[in-house]
Design brief:
The chain is an all-alpha fold and 121 residues long. The two termini are 34 Å apart.
Length: 121
C-alpha cells in the first residue's frame, strides 16, 4: 500500500513537470502536479486511502524539506543584510497576505461544504 502511494504521488509530480515543460514553465511542475492530484481525488480517479499514509508521512515531516531553503538563505546573508529592512517588510506583508487568504479560503470552503451537505439530504 505504501509503495503504490509513493508511486502515485511521484507519478503526479512527474506529470506536473511534463505539463509545465509543455506550457513553457509558466507554472511550476510541482504546483501543476498537486492540482492534477487534487482533481484526481475530487473526481475519484484516485482513492484517498491509497495515498493517505504517504501523504501524512510527508506532511508530518515537512520541516525536513525546508532545510535546503534555509541553508540557501544563510549562504546569501551578506546580500540580505544589505537590505534587511526591505526583506523584513516583504516577509511581513507576504505572511499577512497568506494568513488572510488562507482564512478567507477556509471560510469559503466551509460554507461550500455546508451547502453541498445540505443538498445531499
Amino acid at each position: 500500500m505504501v509503495i503504490s502511494g509513493v508511486f502515485i504521488i511521484i507519478l503526479y509530480y512527474v506529470l506536473g513537470n511534463v505539463v509545465s515543460a509543455l506550457t513553457g514553465h509558466l507554472i511550476p511542475g510541482s504546483v501543476i502536479g498537486m492540482l492534477l492530484l487534487f482533481f484526481s481525488l475530487v473526481f475519484r480517479l484516485v482513492r484517498p486511502e491509497r495515498i493517505r499514509q504517504v501523504a501524512e508521512f510527508l506532511t508530518g515531516n515537512m520541516t525536513v524539506f525546508f532545510i535546503p531553503a534555509s541553508l540557501g538563505i544563510m549562504e546569501q546573508w551578506g546580500l540580505i543584510r544589505s537590505s534587511f529592512t526591505g526583506w523584513v517588510g516583504v516577509t511581513f506583508i507576504s505572511t499577512l497576505l497568506v494568513l488572510v487568504t488562507s482564512g478567507l479560503m477556509q471560510d469559503w470552503l466551509m460554507k461550500a461544504g455546508k451547502r453541498l451537505s445540505g443538498r445531499k439530504r
